Amino acid sequence: MSDLLQMLDMPFFRRALAAAALIGFTNGFVSGFVLLRRSSLTLSALSHTLLPGIVVVVLITGVLNQAGAFTGALLASLIVGIASITVTRYTRLPQSTAIAIFYTAAVALGVILIPYAHTSQNLEQWLFGTIQTMGDTDLKVFFGIACFTLMSSTLFMRPLLLTLFEPNVAAVQGVNVRRMNYLLYTLMIFALMASFQAVGPILSIGLLVAPGAIISLFTNNTKWLFWGGGIIGCVAAVLAVIISIPLNIPTGPAIVLVLGTLFLLAYISVTSRKFHSNTSS
Amino acid sequence: MKHLIILQEGVEMSNCKHVHTEGQTHQLLVNNLEVAYRSDTVLKDINLSAHCGSSLALVGPNGAGKSTLLKSIAGLIEPKTGRITWAGEDNVKCRGGEFAYLPQHEKVNWDFPITVQGVVEMGRYSQLGAWGKFTKKDDLAIERALDLMEMNGELAQRQISELSGGQKQRAFIARAIAQEAHVLLLDEPFTGLDREHTANLSRLLRKLTKENRLVIASHHDINTLTDTFDQILLLNRIVIAMGECRDTLTEENLNLTFKHASHV
Predict the structure, then answer these.
(1) At how many degrees (to 10) do helices A11-37 and A177-216 cross?
(2) How many angstroms separate the CA atoms of B160 and A217, rounded?
(3) Chain B residues close to A178, C-beta within 8 Å
(4) b/e map of B208-242 (b: 16 or more CB within 10 Å)?
(5) 3-state DSSP assignment of residue B29
(6) Phi and psi at residue B112, in whole multiples of 5°?
(7) Which of A76, B109, B247, B257 makes the best surface tag, with the fewest CB within 10 Å?
(8) What is the sign of the dihedral through the CA atoms of B234, B240, B241 and B245?
(9) Does A152 contact B at CB distance below 8 Å?
(10) What distance, in Å, lies between the first and last C-alpha atoms of chain B?
(11) Chain A residue nearest residue B77, CA to CA
(12) Which of A169, A38, A164 is nearest to B104 (CA)?
């Protein structure tokens, strides 16, 4: 405990905790939408595509910085997303198949190109998160993303839920379904960009899926799916920072591991409760 | 399905309100409607007129275009040619309160963490808008819808994924009723219902018609048509016949509707 108090005196640790809380909450909140939209697979594919994007930027520019990494990651995911939509439109292949082919090909290309990407920065750090090196500007960006997520999803919660439940019925009820879909994509991409820094592109989908999945095991209330997911994401990320820094293990993987453990515990708790209620009745 | 052009923009809540008042008649007009999915013409030369306080059954074989016609009326599909109006207004402007739409239930996300009551409450969102608070009136509309579909009590608090096929259908119909829309567009509303609930829904649709609503539903069972609907439209990509059930259900018309795969 005294070690923890001592560490709280260190600015980098305080910034890491604040970043973990903000990123964990935002991703946990948005994970409710990911779950209801049943888009975990697509997002997983897109998050993996961030890797070749970053590598290509390093190859072209010779440096690895935040702006370059974001641009490369965004362009790569856009190319894979648009390519899969195009294939789906002109063939009978489902989008999940098209996206699986493109993203694995993109990751393969990234893996082949990694040895040629010479940079003074640590590529591994980018691939698995850099939460310990957060600056004040990063924190302001995460705070902005968290505010935008909360405000827009609270303001448009009803039309968003109608769209996610059955888009045709939502449209007949007067919801502008296309705009709601754009809003959902924006929320997911913002959350992905935030988790990208915390846990890296490879593991970011874990932070964007697990909190909602955990809370969905306990509730039939959609409102709780979002707020509960946010709280779980926030607590798990903060806990992972507290555990990982003194133990000198990478924080990004620790966040995803804490969430994985929580999911396992939740699953055991729910199934054993069901088992007990079945045997007692 | 992926070739459908779904209209999803430019619609604000409650654009068009024609409160259903006893004795006041509003008309639905479909003029020269043609709908195509790319090069495949699904509906051609569709003309029909129906007014509130009546019920119309759409009857035809699989692929006849019944669901497409319902979606077109609901303003979900952009027609290639033709126009659909309700009470003189373009149908797309009437989304957001005037129409209630029941989709075929395999299209719905049944894993959604929501209770039956929650689903029915969603029906009130058109009236409440994005931010309006539930009032006593909304609570009564929800309670009435649940009562009418016998989904009250313990069933109302049940998670939707735990419902049987027929119960899911009843929950969704309750949602459409709670919406208190002027026009009910129901795609196969009797699917999955047992005999008792079929008879119950048939009575309910009659009651809604008497409340001056217009009910349009796709339907398969020719034997129960006259018990529920005033009018029938025999469809096989074109209108084969339309009129009172008794006059329209002739052997010749049924042969024309069901014995030819396609009329386009």
Answers:
(1) 110
(2) 15
(3) 8-9
(4) bbeebbbbbbbbeeeeebeebbbbbbbbbbbbbbb
(5) strand
(6) -55, 130
(7) B247
(8) negative
(9) no
(10) 19
(11) A168
(12) A169
Express the helix, strand and coil content of chain A in percent, nearest 5 each. Answer: 85, 0, 15
Residue B226: which of B57, B9, B68, B74 has the closest Cα? B57
Enumerate the domain spans of chain A: 2-267
Compute the nearest-CA separation of B131 from chain A (Å): 7
Q: Which of B74, B113, B129 sits opposite A172 (nearest CB)?
A: B74
Whole-number Å distance between alpha carbons of A164 and A35: 10
- Region class of B129: left (phi > 0), else alpha (psi between -120 and 50), else beta: left
Q: Where are the beta strands (DSSP E) in A111-253?
A: none
Q: What is the mean pLDDT of residues A97-123?
A: 82
Mean pLDDT score, A71-77: 81
Class in CATH terms, A2-267: mainly alpha
Among A172, A178, A222, whose Cβ lies nearest the Cβ of B101? Answer: A172
A171 touches chain B (CB under 8 A): yes
CA–CA dist A88, A99 (Å, integer)? 9
Encoding tokens for residue A151?
Answer: 């405000």
Tens-place pLDDT, residues B17-65: 544 455 568 899 999 999 998 778 999 999 999 999 999 999 999 889 9
Residue from B11, B160, B168, B187 to probe the interface with A (highest A Cβ count within 10 Å):
B11
Please count the residues of chain B: 264
- Yes or no, beta carbons of B95 and A171 under 8 Å apart: yes
> Best of A38, A85, A160, A169 to disrupt the B interface by mutation (most B CBs within 10 Å)?
A169
The count of other CB atoms within 10 Å of the CB of residue A44 is: 19
Instruction: Calculate how close chain B gets to A54, using CA atoms only, in Å.
Output: 33
- Backbone dihedral angles phi then psi of residue A123, each to the nearest 5 degrees: -65, -35
Partner residue facing B113 (CB), from A157, A166, A221:
A221
C-alpha dihedral, A101 to A102 to A107 to A113, nearest 10°: 120
Model confidence band, residue A83 (pLDDT cutoffs 50, 70, 90): confident
φ, ψ for residue A249, nearest 5 deg:
-115, 155
- What lies within 8 Å, CB to CB, of A40 at 6+ separation is A34, A205, A209
pTM for the model stands at 0.82
Find the helix or strand (DSSP H, E) in which B232 lies. strand B231-236
Give residue A257's identity as a one-letter amino acid code.
L
